[in-house]
Amino acid sequence: GSGKTYKIAVIAGDGIGLEVMPEGLRCLQAASKKHGFTLSLTEFDFASCDYYEKNGKMLPDDWVELLKPFDAIYFGAVGDPRRYPDHITLWGSLLQFRRQFDQYVNLRPVRLIPGVQSPLALRKPGDEKIDFWVVRENTEGEYSEIGGRIFTGTSREFVTQETIMTRIGTDRILDYAFKLAQGRPRKLLTSATKSNGISITMPYWDERVVEMSKKFPDVKVEKYHIDILTAHFVARPQSFDVVVGSNLFGDILSDLGPAITGTIGIAPSGNINPTGEWPSLFEPVHGSAPDIYGKKIANPVGMIWAGQMMLLHLGETAAAEDMLSAIEQVLGRGDFSEITPDMGGKGRTEILGRAIEKAILDM
Ligand code: NAI
Ligand code: MG
């Protein structure tokens, strides 16, 4: 093992975040024990509705200084619309992290795990693997605050919102995506565009792709307009390797991708600051699931897989490989007493977490 120690900020948040977090930590501890590195965990109770109730805010005033020294943030889920509106809870915590910590890459794996029924059920066992990454620009693009509304409520009402693409912002996300593709066997990068309709910013995006591709001559590049690309995701998901998109297109593709590989309960996500200046954040894609919170049946795989992505980011590649193999092994055997109800089983959160922990230790 590397013998290194990593400082991890642990924020469980709300709802099933509190239930899946212990399983994620259990599996991470198993991987670190086996591979000879140390995770120094510090748990925080902020970024939750309980904290808000006690303190009237989602985060302590010194949250930036508090979190900056950590190597990564391991995050559960935040929000409970029955208690407080999402614009207070999510905007007051998770979205602050993404911006302040310049987590300009949003990264999601799309991988069909053995034993998981894809909604694309006509696929047969033995078909080509679905295994690709969606890289989303996470700080600018279509999600800008430049715009406004005038003549409100009159017949002249006028609303506008600008797309912002900076050269720095565009190039750094493309650089990340090209490097990710370069490190994979197929070395194929797919760019999402819409330069036939969005005639100023999207041609610029295409131009920067061409420019960046000169630095990565070994990476094959293809581009599709976002509309047909969504169709290809469904029709031939096995043909993708790394897919990169602007903030809006990446948002759409990063929900569609995991949707074709099964339940939301298993999908993880990374919000990455590749420079390392700020901590990156790893979380399951799902939210706090108030409808099942308390029943102890939440699927812990999204949380565990997010931990696996965190280890990859930290450079603990062998441990990360073991964690992914363990997930595949346990889901692959499809034991109904282990897998959770969202996957058709009778298992509970802790049973599935412990099964994956054991598989990691037995690898
Ligand atoms: P959700 O992801 O919490 O739940 C959607 C549906 O998927 C529910 O039926 C739920 O039971 C099911 N589900 C989710 N995770 C599951 C798991 N691990 N195992 C089994 N089933 C699972 O989304 P929803 O209901 O729209 O939002 C609930 C709250 O969570 C809101 O406050 C929302 O803003 C917040 N949220 C937070 C996110 C985050 O912290 N990153 C992301 C998405 C939503
Ligand atoms: Mg989304």
From TrEMBL:
Any GO molecular function: NAD binding
Q: Which SUPFAM superfamilies match?
A: Isocitrate/Isopropylmalate dehydrogenase-like (SSF53659)
**Keywords, comma-separated and alphabetical:** Magnesium, Manganese, Metal-binding, NAD, Oxidoreductase
List the EC numbers from the record.
1.1.1.83
Question: What reaction is this protein's catalytic activity?
Answer: (R)-malate + NAD(+) = pyruvate + CO2 + NADH
Locate the Isopropylmalate dehydrogenase-like domain: which residues?
7-356
Is NAD among this UniProt entry's keywords? yes
Q: Which cofactor does it need?
A: Mg(2+); Mn(2+)
Q: Which domain of life is it from?
A: Eukaryota
- Write out the similarity annotation: Belongs to the isocitrate and isopropylmalate dehydrogenases family.
Note the PANTHER family from the entry: D-MALATE DEHYDROGENASE [DECARBOXYLATING] (PTHR43275:SF1)
Q: Which named protein is this? A: D-malate dehydrogenase (decarboxylating)
Organism lineage reads as: Eukaryota, Fungi, Dikarya, Basidiomycota, Agaricomycotina
